[in-house]
């Protein structure tokens, strides 16, 4: 049954008030203890009369427990530890019972009977409630046993109870159910710990275990153990008894969800120094006992030996503090991400990252996987200086598509340059200064952390992180990891942006160069067409006119007229020169525009070009072997034109510069691959490491074909050595789906 918070708090305050009344009653009773008032050595029960400090120490602890309960109920009701009020009541009523009070005896055993169900309920609440049937059954059993053990103290007086035959069994039973409740609590917590996978779930178990051990450690190491070994050097019980306050304090703390606050850091440091003081005191006591009781020399020179033991304790302090710090970090945080492994791996990857996709994979997927994040979303600064989402991981909530890089949100993250919680960021920004997209992302649900990627004081991106899986919490070590990665990622994002800018510039330059080549080809085509339709036709017309004049002059003149013969000879020579010019222009047109390439296909154009070379060079032409098989693969016009120009340049070089006697031209197509080879047996040359070096030697032809091949996405290989001939090889992959639909007509031939 669940009560409203106000009812629960009123009930807690009433219980604490009753507990305080019992403590006051106990303080008055022990202050007026008869043995102390009459200066007796023994009490009425025959035991040594305790000192006032021994009587008051348990009452001070009980008072501390009540104070903890009251503070927790007032400040954080969800972390209630009201069950500890029973412990405080047992401590106080036990002291009163030792003075001979019948009412205190009844109250003490009543509380002892009910401490078992109370504490079992506390542990069940700690792990989330009665989630299994056996837990509910056990709780009902402890409640029933508490009722049974309560009946005798309500019906009989202490003297009457002591006369009962079952009195000893009843006293054992009261203590036995407390042991059974502790055992059932340990089993329930252990089963929960084995099933629970998240650190948030296991954190409460680690804290209460640590709290119980820390509460008992001073008493065990500094009082009980020396007393058991009958060592005359020990810390009084009334001093170490105060360590019991650690248990309710950490029980209450375990109920709270972890948050990065000053209280958390204070408690961790306090726990470290608490353990450090206890262990160093134990080391000092052990050293003192071993030296003073085992060595006569140490007993005689005790001040010197005391200084030596103190020096040993000081030497052990620093390494012991480091180990205790790691222990408390594990208790508070559990299996948090390893700083060295996560930062080492991801930072090394980021330091060499110049590719945007790799950066996105590292920051979004790899980081989220390493730190068990439920989701993450990366915003990167674009070329227009707006922050746009580029990648996400997990169940990313609905977030704006664009964030202004000059807005209040981005400027705040740019100045901070460190991880910040979502609530802290939202609280630091006045809503009136925010734009609509900024307000929308700040209102988005499920955002845990903001990671600004800053380099050289400029925000290059934002990484938004969702909560850890299983509602785990971000630890200080996580913040250290993310701070380091934010710095590395800011540099990497800056580098990636610079590379993107360079790549965009190169693409723009390549696009301009491609347009220049296309414009050159169009200009060649236009010039060839104008020459063919204009100058060539006019020259042919002039040759026809000269031929007609020559025929008329021959028919009208006499053969003996020497002037007429000279005129006829001049006219014939002029006509031949005009035809030679027309033929040369036709050759130039063929060089400017591959004849039949678009109409008949690449194979026919190559055969036609080889035939023209044979006609042009006649007997001086080398043996040209042609083996062209382009199959049924549709070849886009830019690719066909590129291959024609490569073949044209290769064969011209073989004839003009290499003095080759044999030239082989081969074209093959396999699936989507085209392979063109031009091989000659000429004089060869030394191929430089970079083809651009040929431009410095005025060899622009090979540089031009290299640029053409690169423009269509192909690979060019040139093999040559002085005296060993040359070979030009081009590989081009033809994308059947990605071209523009314009192809050279196909044909297959061999020769």
Structure summarized in a few sentences:
The chain has helices spanning 5-31, 34-37, 52-75, 84-97, 102-126, 133-155, 158-163, 167-195, 199-228, 237-240, 246-254, 262-294, 296-300, 302-333, 339-351, 356-370, 408-416, 422-428, 436-442, 476-556, 562-592, 597-600, 602-617, 637-656, 700-711, and strands spanning 375-381, 386-394, 403-404, 420-421, 449-455, 458-465, 623-629, 635-636, 662-670, 673-680, 715-720, 726-733, 743-744. With 751 residues, it is of the alpha+beta class. The N and C termini lie far apart (98 Å).
Q: Could you characterize the architecture of this molecule?
A:
By secondary structure, the chain is of the alpha+beta class. Among the domains are: 339-497, Beta-Lactamase (2-Layer Sandwich); 597-744, Histidine kinase-like ATPase, C-terminal domain (Heat Shock Protein 90), CATH 3.30.565. The chain contains 25 helices and 13 strands. It has helices spanning 5-31, 34-37, 52-75, 84-97, 102-126, 133-155, 158-163, 167-195, 199-228, 237-240, 246-254, 262-294, 296-300, 302-333, 339-351, 356-370, 408-416, 422-428, 436-442, 476-556, 562-592, 597-600, 602-617, 637-656, 700-711, and strands spanning 375-381, 386-394, 403-404, 420-421, 449-455, 458-465, 623-629, 635-636, 662-670, 673-680, 715-720, 726-733, 743-744. The strands form three sheets. Strands 3-2-1-6-5-4 form a six-stranded antiparallel β-sheet. The protein has a five-stranded mixed β-sheet with strand order 7-9-10-12-11, covered by helices on one side. Strand 5 (449-455) and strand 6 form a beta hairpin. Helix 15 (339-351) runs parallel beside helix 20 and helix 24 (637-656) packs antiparallel against helix 25 (700-711). The radius of gyration is 49 Å and the shape is rod-shaped. Residues 747-751 have low confidence and may be disordered.
